[in-house]
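Components:
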Amino acid sequence: MSDVAVTALCDIYPDRVDALAGPVAEASRIKPRAFTDYRAMIDARSAYDALIIPTSMITHGIIALDALRAGIYTAIEVGGAASLEECWALVRASEEHGAPLMMLENCCYGRRELLVTNLARQGQFGRLMHCRGGYAHNLSELLVEEHDNNRHMRIYNYMGRNGDIYPTHGLGPYAKLLDINKGNRMVSLVSMASKSRGLPLWISENKGPGHPFAKTDFTQGDVITTAIRCANGELILLTHDTQLPRPYSRAGLVQGTKGIWIESDIGKDDEPPLHFRRMGMLHIEGKSPMAHDRPNLRELWEPASNYLAEYEHPLWREYLEAQGNGVNAISAGMDTIMLRAMIDGIREGRAPIDVYDAAAWMSITCLSEESIQAGSASVAIPDFTSGKWIERKKEAGKYSLD
Amino acid sequence: MSDVAVTALCDIYPDRVDALAGPVAEASRIKPRAFTDYRAMIDARSAYDALIIPTSMITHGIIALDALRAGIYTAIEVGGAASLEECWALVRASEEHGAPLMMLENCCYGRRELLVTNLARQGQFGRLMHCRGGYAHNLSELLVEEHDNNRHMRIYNYMGRNGDIYPTHGLGPYAKLLDINKGNRMVSLVSMASKSRGLPLWISENKGPGHPFAKTDFTQGDVITTAIRCANGELILLTHDTQLPRPYSRAGLVQGTKGIWIESDIGKDDEPPLHFRRMGMLHIEGKSPMAHDRPNLRELWEPASNYLAEYEHPLWREYLEAQGNGVNAISAGMDTIMLRAMIDGIREGRAPIDVYDAAAWMSITCLSEESIQAGSASVAIPDFTSGKWIERKKEAGKYSLD
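Structure:
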């Protein structure tokens, strides 16, 4: 990105800062200032326009809070909150110091998620009733390897905790679609967990009894479902599923009074064209095919890719035209588009995924833990807008998800 | 079935009895006795070996109770219970009078459900952690038409009620797979409902404002999810989704420490071979394909039909051999196999889906209503075996689902 420079770097490990300084200087055409204490980097705020905080799930909130209190435009990586107070603190700091917080939830800018968003915004599904999303990704090997070889502590979240500890990939796109915090809000949830077996089984079978984690008690349920009720009566269902051998999925579903879309990655991997399966399947009343020989089983699925020509989101249309490659782009693209959304936000002083979204989405983690510990009790989700959701207006900007 | 005769008939509407008497006599080679009062039919119990009660969801329990109390082998159609007391009454009547009750849950004998059962029983999924099922079937037109033209009152369940009113198609196969009532049991559930919009919308758009139901308040949520916790720590998720335009699905999923299967009907309707899509997709660790170019996204789906040659259930192998048609049989077959299971049960004095199964499965309906009315409260599921589930032994018979 020729209009962007990384002017400062911080990592608690000096060797990482050293290793990154050269490549970053080359890409940014300027030598970055280097820090190993994030507070020093915050103090040097004249050196940059905004901070990206991609630290761990249990540190990015703490660092973001200090950054917001210093009035810095703050972008944070995804992850759930450990307490409601952490969410409230981010909201109050952003409000008090006039500093936007943006959550870098790349899945909100995914090609299929934006195709579905565009279809929904143009009324193709009718009135929305139900959305599903999730994070189904077998992390067993990764959790151990990144701990052992990369000073990465994510696996500690699987000891002691038990809840949807990574809710935003599955929730973000559909929270935006359901107008959460702008005309709607999430009011309550219930979570339920299966027992925890996958991770210790993988470790014992693949790392042997001598591995430091071989005798660890893991508490995080292998599969966790969370049902969320919205103020306007919609039902959201989330899944967290990261310790069992299974194909990756974000478990998407959008259902309304006129149609339904489901994520579907189940084609063969070499089946052309790739976007056929990666856009999912849908049925839209009055448009999609019907079976004529089965009186009460008439609706049929069709590939959502059939609607790309008409309903591709403008952000993706632009991106693919710039790439000159309209078929296979799926994941790199959403990161790029999201980062451009952030840069636009820094310039305009706004955040398309703002502090209220971040607080609400992150709160699902500690609330799902609370619900599970209380025997799947129904727990209230705070209104982090303090009532403003009733009147908050949607934004029109190019990168807006409203 | 040359070894079976229908020797008596009962319907509250005399014209229906009259219309059926001829065809039944021809098929059974004997003139059936005819009744319009079910109590009279129960009193004539020497006329038959067993009763099938396929009346409505809110009458079959009442009639079954009278039949059990008369010591009759009783088979009932599927459907949920209106109260826990109804479930207990069936259990106590069956125990006290030594009369088996069998629930005619045909989906338990579906080809793909039995393929998955066979795969699971032979350890292909490892230790089971999570199952999903549901009833996703757009009934809007059917509910109105059957009421207006066929004296069928099912639509009244959509007024006043709000819960999973038809849980057994989705629950039955997986309750058996998880050994519910024989070594395991369902201990608690939470349900959440979306608002209710689909049915009145369909009626107003298709039947006009003059239709008797055009101004009815429907209460049944369009989409209802129910999470069930099992004594051994497994998590079951059910969906009820019958008022929105969407393709049919029973939303099946079976997941364990070594693999996962999902129902999948998303191929094109004319895609050959039909069983490719109708058997669903799976991933089994160590057997299914892996992607080599994506380090942390390696597991791939493959068609479950790949496993038919080795893991087709013996009941289906026999059925398909008798049919001389191994490809397209799917629905008719499961009804036939289920009825043969019932006939075997009548002869042997047993029920492969017995009164404890029926009570537990039917109880999900009134418990989901209770949970929703109490704001998605966690509610206990009774142990209808009164503790016997801890020691109850699996049965070996040909039609056993244990």
